[in-house]
Structure formats: structure tokens, C-alpha cells
Amino acid sequence: MAATLPPVAEHPIAHSIGRFDYALPAPLRSTGSTLTIYLVDIAQSPLPAGVAPAEAWRARLATELAAKSASRPSGVLTREFELPGVGPAAWMRLTPSQPDLVTLLAQRPVAQAGLAVTLEMEASAGREQFAERIFTRVAQSWVPGSPQGFSTGLGAVVMQPSQNERASESFMAPGLSISIQTETVEEPDDGQNTAEPPPGGKVLLKQQRRIGTFEGIEQHTQLPNEGSGESLVYLWIFPGQSADGAAPRIRLAANAPLSHAAALDEAWNTLLATWRLRPIGAH
Fold first, then answer.
1. Residue 116: closest CA among 192, 180, 58
2. How far is the C-alpha of 171 from the C-alpha of 76, rounded, in Å?
3. Which of 192, 217, 222 is nearest to 206 (CA)?
4. Is the pTM of this model over 0.85?
């Protein structure tokens, strides 16, 4: 039986990521996001009940230093300090094979929102003070619940757009997935719209489509899927404007089995109909 979602008019859920607001039907749940502005990576997490912000920081720092992989053994803490106007911070060397690369980690507790905002940035050894200035500006510009600026979901960095912004988030419901990606670019890039489908696939639709104030290319493709019938892939891309954080490259994508076409169409049209640029909120 084909999957169905509740009627859009009754169940759209508001979301925001980076410079954009949008909505999706309620069954679609976020499975993760990534956020970068002015080369600072930002993540949010609730402060656990009964855990003091200082304890949350110690746990976060310990996790970062203990992270191991083939390319990144345990990190080395080189300096721990209080970053004025932000909170506890630390400089670390996380990759012994690259001694000139250092990482700044900090956590800004937002008690009234029950959140800890974690910020991370890489820099060249010897440029720590310069990095701290940028880092502090970004951290202090984060406003909980702000309807403007660079959204992190539960708040926003209210600053002028930078030339180094990236935001992405993925959503899933049974048999359906959606991904949202925005990124500043040096020059417009719509290369993925020129790709031909693989053998056995066919393009069902390819057209110019405006969403919000952005003119992009929409493409629907039907693909063979061994063992589970055919699948549908929907894509919309705005190529972006050069070095413009308010007009980044936008890539919206969704896919589902052919049997879930009705649910896919509903989610896709909700996303595109509600896509809006957020107010910048800074001068």
C-alpha cells in the first residue's frame, strides 16, 4: 500500500536551517544537521537535567580529546581557559601528524533555553588570537529563538552573511527521505542538473521552478532499484551567487520508492511552497 502523510494544511511543521525557513509534513523527523559560519562549526544540545553547565563542558571536552580514528589519535589539550562573553574554551592538537593545525572548542551555556551551544574552529598555530576574535563574535551573536539571522534550529547567529557558510539537514519518514544543503560558492554551480540518469533510469520532469525568490532547476527521475522495485528522486538546485551568503548554492533533494509517490509529492511540494529567505537581522 502506498504511504500517505497527513494533509499538508493540517500538519506542516516549521523548520529553519542556515539562511532559510521552510516547513515539512509532521512525519518527517530530523536525523541530523551540520552548520558552519565564518569557518566556525556550531552544534546545539540540551543541557541534561540535573547536570551543571561545567559538568557538561568537562564531558564534551573529554569526548573530543578521546576521539580516535585511523587518521586522528587521541588529542592533546594545549590550553584551557575562559573565553570572555562565551564560556569555557580550550585549544587542542587533535592530529599529531599536523602539528601546525590547532582546534578551538568552546561551549556557551544558555540556561534560560536549557541549551549548550558548542562551537569549534580550526586554525594555524600562531594565529590563535585572530581566530579567537572571529570565534567570539560568532558565539556572542547567537540568539536563542531568533526569527532572523543564520539559523541553527533553536537559535540563530545574527550577523552579516559571510563568504564561508554551510548548512545541511536530513529528514526521514518511513519510506521517504529529504535532504537540504546550502553553501556559499566562489561561482555559480548547477553541475548536478546536467547529469544523465544511469542505464534503466528516465527523467520524468526537468524545468525551471522559482521557490521564494530563487530561480532553480527542478528534476524528477525514476530509477531502477534492484530487489525493491523502482524509486523516485526529486532534485531542485539554485546555483548560487558568487561569495554571497544571502544567495548560496541551494540543493534540495528527496527520494522514495515508486509505491510512495503520493507521500513524496506531498512532502516535496510542501517544502518548495514554504521555502523562504530569513531576514538578515544585522547591519
1. 58
2. 35
3. 217
4. yes
The domain boundary residue, chosen from 112, 130, 157: 157
Mark whether 67 and 173 lie in a shared domain. no
The alpha carbon dihedral of 107, 113, 115, 117 has a sign of: negative
CA distance 104 to 135: 9
Note whether 87 and 149 are same-domain residues: yes
Based on the domain organization, do 47 and 25 belong to the same domain? no
The answer to whether 248 and 182 are in contact (CB under 8 A) is: yes
> Which amino acid, one-letter code, is at 216?
G
Which contiguous run of DSSP H or E holds residue 251? strand 249-257
Which residues span the domain enclosing 119? 40-157
Give tens-digit pLDDT for 219-239: 999 988 766 678 999 999 999
Judged against a pLDDT cut of 80, whether residue 140 lies above it is answered with: yes
Please report, for residues 13, 235, 261, 269, the alpha-carbon distance to residue 27 in angstroms, rounded to integers and kept in the order given. 9, 20, 15, 15
- Residue 126 and residue 212 share a domain: no
- How is residue 179 written as a grid cell? 535532504
Count the domains in the chain: 2
Query: What nine digits make up the cell of 238?
Result: 539554485
Cell triple for residue 94?
A: 587533535
Q: Are residues 167 and 258 in the same domain?
A: yes
- Do 153 and 180 lie in a common domain? no
- Cα distances (Å, whole numbers) of residue 210 to 21, 132, 133, 161, 176: 16, 40, 39, 22, 24
Tens digits of residue pLDDT in 105-137: 999 988 777 888 999 999 999 999 999 999 999
